[in-house]
Amino acid sequence: MRFLPLALAAALLAFAVYAALRPDPVVAAVDEVRRANAIAGAVVAFGDPSGPPTLVTLGEADPRRGIAMAPDARFRIASLTKPIAAAAALRAARDGALDLDAPLPGLPVPFDPRAAAITPRMLMAHRGGLGAEGFDPMFEPARLGLPEDTPCDATALHLWSTAPLLHAPDTEKAYSNVGMCLLAVATEGATGLSLSDLLAREAEVTLGGPATPLWARTDAGWEERLDFPEAFRRLGAAGGGTADAAALWSFAARPHPVQAQSWEGEDRYAQGWRVWPGPDGAALTHWGGISTDLFTLMVVLPDGEPVVALFNGGVEDLDGTFRTLFAAICSAREQTCG
Fold it and tell me: Which pLDDT score is estimated for 70?
């Protein structure tokens, strides 16, 4: 009988070691996505917003040479640039330089008279109507008669001056990359700052610049993908940012006015975020991706905890993977999101 206390102590110690070694369920969910999609590596940032983030690396930064992923690796963040560009517009509004509910300032007369009613708030909610039928002009400017290397902001201004809107302003939602770039044009004009300066001020994000390589697993082995920093830079406010996970986590950990509002009904876009109303409060999300080459995710849970996951590869089903991972993160924290 005297051995029972020792056995119990040993069992408790074994459980404690297991608990310490077992990954956080958020990390486990991210790693499951990484492994299921044969992605070489990832960095995850999470934790209570009142303290520093926990950074966890998964896999490799260079699978050919077996180089482990580093916590400070910089990634192409794609559409995670959008909430940061929107935050720059919100700051300009707080400073009195930009009216979010007034027509866009400093632009030429639009081709479509209805466009004169577009406001910054509509663009942040993807309700401006700027775009093209059947294709994304940011990725295919040549279909508008523009050079292939036309930056997103120039493409947006071209559409403003030459094309009808997809719908009347603020009557429906149509996700618009060029709309976010037009928002950046208005914010730059209102503040006198370049987009590079605006992004750096909000979240230590650069336009283009060096980033960890992107990899895809092929029958012949690992293949490096999309090594075109200037092409990413041309995506501007819609997707041209480069950052590390800690910088994005710090941005997400800030108070966001949109989360403090009362929301009901279905999810929608507002202030650059996708807002998911729920019984525990609103969750905020954004994901970015380019088919099988790139995938990124930023979440603010209803209780305010930010989670950032940056991958150096992509997935076949971008929206489906986002929904699966978002649900897993919410479940890991026992919160109802949407």
Answer: 98
